[in-house]
TrEMBL record:
Residue stretches making up the MOSC domain: 21-145
Name of the protein: MOSC domain-containing protein
Recorded superkingdom: Bacteria
One term of GO molecular function: pyridoxal phosphate binding
PANTHER family in UniProt: METAL-SULFUR CLUSTER BIOSYNTHESIS PROTEINS YUAD-RELATED, MOSC DOMAIN-CONTAINING PROTEIN
Amino acid sequence: MNKSVGEVIELFISKKNEVARSNENRIELDTEGVLEDKFYAKDVERSVLLTSRESYELVAKNNIEIAYGALGENILIDYNPYELNMGAQLKIGEVVVEITQYCTICNHLSKLDTTLPILLKDDRGIFVKVVKGGFIQKGDKLYLL
């Protein structure tokens, strides 16, 4: 196995009929996305959002305070994957994911702060699809495949 490039900091699920996102210690994924998440089996190319801690650091440098999870991510890592090419694969815990697209800016960010959509235009996160399912938990190592 290659050397670890980072690790999982936080995990989140957006549950149906709940406003607040659920911070989890462990999540289960299969080829349809994150089990129990409201986006599960909706669009496998966009069902899992991976975000870097660097996105939150960028926001903080601009004097905006938001909590982890506010960017809508399922998996928050301490590695910046935004320069990786589409199709690149990562192993996180038991799970293998493949980058499908960069996250587009959505309107809910402007509800947090009107400057967020512009500030995070290229730094909000990446969508991944699940190639090999399993469990991911906080502290799991991240590997480039």
